[in-house]
Every structure is written in structure tokens, then in C-alpha cells.
Give the backbone structure.
Amino acid sequence: MLRNAIRKDLLLNGKQFWGLIPWFAWAAYALGQEHMGAMTAVSGALIGALMTVSICAREDKFHATAFLASLPVARRTFVQARYLLALVVGAVSMAGVAAMSAVLPWSVQSVAEAFEPKTLLLGAAVAGVSVAMLMPLAIRFGLLGVIGFFAVLQVAGIALLVLPVALGMKDVLNGLFRAAERGFIGLHGALDQPGTLLQTAAIVAMAVWVSFQVSVFLVERQDL
Amino acid sequence: MSADYALELHGVCKRYRGFRLDDVSFSLPRGYIGGLIGPNGSGKTTIIKLIMNLARHEAGEIRVFGLDNRRDEVAVRSRIGFVYDVPGFWDDQTLALHRRALGTFYPRWSDETFNRLASEFGLPLDRKFKTLSAGMKTKFALAMALSHEADLLIMDEPTAGLDPVFRRELLQRLSALLQDEGKSILFSTHITSDLERVADFITFVQNGRIAFSMPRHDLFDAWAIVKGDAAVLARLDPATVRGARQRGTGAEALVSDAASARRALGASALVERPRLDDVMVLMEGEAAHAA
């Protein structure tokens, strides 16, 4: 039944995945930029996973949720399918970027770097944690949950950009961005250490597992 | 509780803010058509949602073919064909793609049956769902529900968006399903004439409670509408009066014992076989009066 649930999502939402094309166009450009490093491939995992969650939430817009819940499938199975599909599409997007880095003549990224364990794990971590945060909202509140999630991110981002400038704290803002960048690159570098790699993998797996349990809890108690 | 029944509800309760479904009990034997009637907001759709486990009941028990509708939900649903009052499918996908994506969930799905029904209903499989009229959408939902050899069809207001010709055709098809294949059907409707035509059992839902649930023939044979002067109607046994209203210079009452009304009133009042809409109107008037 899990296979049928994934197949259903792919068949009925398949066209929507063409929406990844513009992002891949940007990735083609970014692969020519020295400073991006392996982050283009990592962001591929993020975009692929988040886009899958958003696309699958469309059934809420079509009021198809009640019909789906009337099919001879446990609600938990549909949730499993969602998580699996999001993570698989994230992985495929990341692999797509790696493949582009091998093919595009202007690419300054090496395929080997994209497939390093630390890069793969960073991609999995970014995609996994993002899916873990977004999926319960998408499951409980449908498309509204997805829109709300991105709206909050947008508002927070704008506030982060505008407020420090308005308050005359532009240096603080720059410091924040630099710290975030350093933290991200630092984590990527630290993943060379087997201990850090295992710890990160365990934390991500735990986050996804907890998120999955929350989603199942919500969906099984939801009155349609 | 027995597997001889397609459906059994016993003491089912569900609370929402401002509405309570209370102690709902009724059953539908295998091979019969049951109709749920009642005014808007009385709880018909909620009952159907509870049976389908789309909403969770807080007390009581629901069994479908002897199986618990929660514990055995996958097995139960594989035997149910379901038509929701507002059919929801993927607007931007064709009917053929829906068949391909959704049919595989049912162990007994038949593409052949679906294609035959689509042809009979005039459904264009290459059209997107959003381009269909409301009636066509219901027909598509029906085709989906009838294509996996369901033993029980549950339909919430299935005839609401349909033209009279197709409505009549649908009802004939439902009756044929029973005769040919021994299926059971439960459907809710506001169109009481549909139930008078095909239902074997009538369940009347009123303010979240079951006002009555009985075989249609028992209802029409035992119950009656009594018309006459208000003074004459006052001689009726109050225990049998289920509703009454003033009408012009006279009055009319719904009684649950036609024979005793005839004995009590003789030729001084008119005792008629009731119609379902009379039953609904008079019982609803009584409930409003009591409130």
C-alpha cells in the first residue's frame, strides 16, 4: 500500500514537479560560482524536499482529503509516503545537481565533492530538518500550513534585514550573516570527523522520526 | 452484533462545538437499502463520517459486516464504496489518470467495470475533473464507488446535483445492484421521494438523535396523517402523536398508530397514509415546538 500511496502522489501531482526547472536553471548558474562550493548540491536537497511537501498539500485545496481518507489505506501509510517521497525527491535533486556539475562546461564544482559523505549528510540534514518542521503543519493544516510556514519565514527574513538597519545596527546584521555562513561551512567541514558525522546523522534521524510521530498523531485524530 | 448486518451503530456519540450527536443506534441488514433523512444540520453527514471513520466517535460502537470500523478500518473500507456530498478529486487531472492512480488501492478494482460505467454515464475520460459539471462530478464519484465490487455503498446526498432523469436512472441502478448482487446501500438525502421509491429502511435524524429507524413498509402501514378539527384531534392518544400543526380552520397530526387513530376518531377525521415529507415537516414542527 505504501507503494500505491507514493505512486498516487507521483501520478496526480507529477506535472507540478516541472516547477523545479527554474531552480535547476539557477543551479546551473551557481555551479559556475567559486564561492558556492558544495552548497548548490545541498540546496538541491532542500528545494526538492520542500517542494514535494508543498505539492502534496494540494489535495487539501481540491477537498480530496475526505476521499483519500475513505480509501482502504491507514492514514499512517499516507504520512509515510509523504515523508519518503519528500526525502527521495530531495536526494534526486541533489544527485541532479551533482550530475550537472559533471556535464556543464562552466562548472567549477567537482562531482566528487558533491558525493562526499559530509556533503551528502549535510544535504540530508538540511532536507530532513526542513521536512521535519514543515510536514506536521502541511498534514494538519494543509496548504494553509505550508503557506503559513513560508509566510513566517518571509516575515522573519524581512524583519531581520530591515530592523537592524532601521535601528542603526547594520554591523550586527552583517555579523549575524557571517556567523551563520561560518557555522554552516564549519559544520560541513566538521562532518569530516566520524564522531560529528554520526552525531549529526543521529540528530537528523531523531528529528525526522519525532516529526513523523507528531504527523501520525495529528492525522489519526483529525476529524474531516 | 452480527455479520448478518451490513451496518450496526450502537450508542454512538460525537460532540462538536454547538452540536452533539447523541446515542445514535440503528442497523441495516445485508442486502437492503437504508435511507437517512432529516433537516439540515440534524447530523446525517456526521453519522456518515463516523461510519467511514473520517471523524472519530467518542462513545458507542460502529460495526460494518461485523467488523469494528476503527480497529479493522482497512478491511472495512475495502468493502465500502463511498460518495461524498461534494466530490473532491484533483481538479487539474483527467478522469483516466484518477482511475490509474486510485484504482490500485482496491483489491477488487475493475478497470472494465469503471470503463463500462463511464461510458454509460457519458463521462469523458480525457477531460480534467474541474471541467465537469456538478452532476458529472457526482457521476464520476459514483463510477469510482461502483468499480471495486463494494459490498456496501455509502452515499451522502448523492442525488442532490443530478437532473431528474439521471436521478431516476441512478435509483433504478441501485435497486438492480441489490437484486443482482446482494449489495447493501445507505444514503442520505433531502429528496424524500427518492427514499419512497427505493429505501427498505428509513432512519430519521433529528437534532443529533435518531427519531425513528424502521422498515419503510412498517412506517407507511402503521403511521398515519390524521386531518380534522382541532377538537376532534384532541381525542387522539397523546402517546401516539409524533407531531401536529394547525392548517387553515382544521389541524393535522402525525400518529404512530393508524389503527388506534381510526378506532378513536371513526369517520370524524380523515386518516391517510403518510408521505415522508409530511413525516419530516410534522416531526420537525413538533421538535421546534418542544424546544
User: Anything to note?
Assistant: The first strand of chain B starts at residue 5 and ends at 16. Chain B has a mean pLDDT of 86.
